[in-house]
Each structure stands twice: as C-alpha cells, then as structure tokens.
Amino acid sequence: MAHKTSARDVVNAIKDVDFPAGKDDLVQAAGRSGASQDVVKALRGIPAEQYANREEVARSVRVDPDSDLGTSPAQQAEQARAGGRRGQSQHLREVPKPPVEEELDR
C-alpha cells in the first residue's frame, strides 16, 4: 500500500508534542496542527506504545520507502536482514553506514 506522506511530514505534524507520548497523544496533536489526512492515517497505524522522541515515531510510522530517508542500497539491504521493533516498517529500522560509505564520506 503506497502512502502519500513522508517521515518529514509526520515529524512536522508532531513538533509541538511533549515526549514521552502515546499513540493517541500523537494522533490528536497531528489533528490540532492541521496535518493532512495521510499523516493522521499514518500515525493511527503505529503500534500503541509510548514514544520517547520524534525519531522513534518517524521510524515506526509507515511511509513511502523512497520518501525522504536517503538510505543507500547497502543500508536498505542491512535493514532487510536486521530485525526491528515489532510493527516497525523495515525501511525505517536503524542501520549503520557500511564501512565503504564511511570511508567515502571522509
């Protein structure tokens, strides 16, 4: 299922939230901030947990994998191999840079 929102849209919609925050707090905050229906829908799809910060929310929400995360093919492959939190979208799992990319960034 394709989503028309990005991780950046979601983070912008919850920028006024005091963390830690639960799923219901995040959905309500997005509604108050005038977020699009796609953003609110994406937040409704996250696991009902307490989130410590916006980064955790961004990693848990389901968005278009190509939206704005800037992961390389090597990082995407590592994400596919690595497990994440239950309910977390594969393309949003934490992944380190491969050694080759770290070397190239220097």
UniProtKB/TrEMBL annotation:
One protein family per Pfam: DUF2795
Top-rank taxon: Bacteria
Chain positions covered by the region annotation Disordered: 57-106
Biased composition (Basic and acidic residues): 91-106
Full protein name: DUF2795 domain-containing protein
Organism, as annotated: Streptomyces caelestis
Lineage per the UniProt record: Bacteria, Bacillati, Actinomycetota, Actinomycetes, Kitasatosporales
